[in-house]
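Review this:
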Amino acid sequence: MLKFIFTLCGITLGLHVFAQNEPHRSAADTVKQLSDEVVVYATRASEKSPTAFSNISKTVIQKQNFGQDLPFVLNWTPSLVTTSDAGAGIGYTGIRIRGSDATRINVTINGIVLNDAEEQGVYWVDVPDIATSTQNIQIQRGVGTSTNGSGAFGGSINLQTNTRKDSPYADIINSFGSFGTHRHTVGFGTGLNHKFAFDGRLSLIGSDGYIDRATSDLKSYYLSGGYYGNKTMIKAIVFGGKEITYQSWYGVPQDSLATHRTYNYYTYKNQIDNYAQDHYQLHFSHRASDHLTANAALHYTYGRGYYEEYQPAQNLAAYHIAYPVFGANDTVKTSGLVRRLWLDNHFYGMTWSLNYEKEKWNSILGGAYNQYSGDHFGEVVWAQVATTIPPFYRYYFNNGKKEDFNVFWKNNIQLHEKLLAFVDVQYRRVDYKALGTEDAGVNVNFDVHYNFFNPKIGMTYTLKEDQQLYASYCVGNREPVRSDFVQAQPGNIPKHETLNDFEAGWRMRKSKIALNVNAYYMDYKNQLVLTGKLNNVGAPIRENVADSYRAGIEVDGGIQISQHFTWNANLTLSQNRVKNFTEVLYDASGNANNIAHANMNIAFSPWAIAGSVFLYKPFKNAEIGLLTKYVGLQYLDNTSNRSRAIDPYLVNDWRLSYVFKPTGMRELSVSLLLNNFMNVKYSSNGNTYPYISGGQILSANYYYPQATRNFLLMVAMRF
């Protein structure tokens, strides 16, 4: 049977009114039927919230889930740009919202923060195939409503894992495609039986990658068990993954793009990232009365792993290794060696909320307390010359500890039949310290404390039953990330960042058309950016810039043109500026040269982002989708220098599917995704290293090319 399962291939089809916000369950509905939705209710926007958001249902997720990382499932949502180091959407992938990178996007799973506590990013490769176990997703753009974890400076992504299914089921999904890509998923559920329900999933995903040697070997699992009483729900969830990816982090030099665009700098056979992460969640919800529901959750995440790399001609003194002496006086000071840089971390805590609704007042009092402890250390596992070192010799170690407490109070108040007021206040306390040494002998020693007050206010006015106007003002604060402290010049402590976010918009919902128009102005104070400046050991550092902003307009919607045709599209036009910026360039002698800039474009912030999904259903159970994505010019740094930029790109995909209804199955679906069918050669990410040579400013640019024409084929059997 297993042999039969893993020789099949599977896929699901497309994005369905991806720009359209689906109806959000109200607190009153939640009270009447206590269900899994209460787990995420406290951290989500409602259909009348005065903020920009999109809801993505399980049906939509399944259509685009071919086994690629979650960012590629979300690629057609408004103001969003994705990238893949390996070029094919599996392995290390990235996401930006309104130009903000992953460290500024708050991500939660069932209301529990997923962002790394220290660097604040999200590594989707650590939770492969999480999309298969996801019931729905809400993406909020801008500061949004209060949530748990680090501040949302570009947006927030809130995932809810699979909810209860009342009937037993089994799913077998297999995919195959270009670059040796394959995915095998088995899922099952008992259905509701005497108020208990259990679900599970196992997944294997692998790919050779588009970039040379950019292989991925991913394993993941999901298990849940819940008790569903009339007034009480208790649910335990365990999920995680193990990834081994060959590193393709370096990028392709600009002069190699035309001749060898799949070039990978790394050649050492075991140049891998090897990491495992396990998540444990225990959720409790109780309906105390018709108006009051209480929720609480305990969580624990354990992550551990390393990346291994070969380093040629290393000075052994930097590794605290005595110089070996051969013969009478032949002292060797350098050696090629293999090292592993380790992370071993624990993250645990609790979240809670009280949801109250009565007549014209909906109130949520909630919060979280989290603790983190992470060890960072390096090991030399092999040296070409210094053969007397002990096995797995440790040459540096430091530990970071972080406490994060927040409490928020959200209120929706119906002031008038057509006017709803929104008031949301949050207090967040962060205590963060680290001690030890870092790679290259850098001392790590900081102890910082932050108290943040993040108020949010807004109004929603109902013009008609199917139209709304809204406006909001939200404040967000966030602490610097670990590398800002580690790489800062001695004695210089980076400042925290503040965002004042103004949003205003109009929504329309009719039976066959939905349209959202949203304008925003995001005013940053002390935003941390790369200036080109290096610290005393040559590492790049970020520095605060006093004033910067993002301003733009977002339009998204969907229309059912006929029984057979549906079109969903979005467009973001924006201006993203650093008002005053000092670039630091170094010459061959190591002298720093300061160059002042004014009103420059913020790096990686395209002026235009557009997406389109055109769906055609020629007959029952068949669908053809044309998926289009346009991303405008992106600069690699904050100087608006055209020679340091990513060219605009327009990419089109075809997605085809057919669903059979054979006897003995719920369905058998066959889907084909033809990515980049016009064979466009483009890059979606990059970096630059400008310098001065011979009195001229030169740039060493590196890019991350994305795959040319390729395909994924999937067969999904659902019982």
